[in-house]
Automatic annotation (TrEMBL):
Organism whose genome encodes this protein: Musa acuminata subsp. malaccensis
Name of the molecule in the record: (wild Malaysian banana) hypothetical protein
Source superkingdom: Eukaryota
Amino acid sequence: MSMLWEKSETWRWLVRKTRDPKRFFFAFATVCGVVPGGIGYCVMQLTNTRNEQLEAHLHQTARPESTMMGQVNREAG
């Protein structure tokens, strides 16, 4: 792992750029953190659709112990 920061010119360039000018650091942090987080949130919102028919089928075919645990969880919450 030490080879990364001892010999990699790209790594040294990145360290120099993020150490001195704060503007580059914030841009880099945004690209590495905020952008993937925003994309992930959008993907989750697009793929999280409720399917009432599937939920009804799962409730009908649930095992008794699963139904009992669901009731316990509802009462506790």
